[in-house]
């Protein structure tokens, strides 16, 4: 009987922690020793379609409950808060 292979999937929010051995290997890697041959080159058309995401720094004051809620989500709370605010903004724009 043939044993089936398991597929392990990760997303940016649930990557396994980097081990100390892996961290040392990454820091010791030289760019010239990295094989980029399997990465396709970006075409001029792809470069033209690429967009730059501009961000602006803004300080806001949050209640302890709101701050704790987003920090306890375990991911990038700034990006999450930005997404929530953007969704709210889009809803408000369509109400007008």
């Amino acid at each position: 009987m043939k044993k089936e292979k398991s597929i392990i999937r990760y997303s940016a929010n649930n990557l396994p922690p980097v081990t100390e051995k892996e961290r040392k290997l990454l820091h010791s890697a030289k760019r010239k020793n990295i094989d980029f041959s399997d990465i396709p080159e970006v075409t001029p058309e792809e470069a033209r379609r690429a967009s730059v995401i501009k961000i602006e720094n803004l300080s806001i004051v949050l209640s302890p409950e709101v701050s704790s809620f987003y920090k306890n989500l375990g991911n990038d709370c700034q990006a999450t808060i930005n997404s929530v605010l953007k969704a709210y903004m889009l809803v408000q724009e369509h109400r007008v």
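The two ends are 64 Å apart (CA to CA). The first helix runs from residue 20 to 28.
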